[in-house]
Amino acid sequence: MSGIDSGIDSDMVAMLRTSLRHVLTEVSDRPLAQRLDDLGWDEVVTSDPATALQTMFEIKGETLSSAAALGPELARVFAVHAGDAHASGTVVGLASPFGASRLDGDTLHVEATALSVLDGASLLVPLDSRLAVCPSAGLTEAPMTELDENFGAVRVTGIVAAGDVNWIDGDVWPHVVAHGRWLVACELVGIARHVIATAVEYTGQRVQYGKPIGEFQALQHRIASAHALVVGAGHLATEAGRDGDEWTALVAKCMAGSAAEFACTQAQQCYGAIGFTWEHEFHRYLRRTYTLDRLFGDWRSLEHEIGNRLQLTGVVPRIGSL
Question: Fewer Cβ close by (within 10 Å): the C or N end of the chain?
Answer without folding.
Answer: C
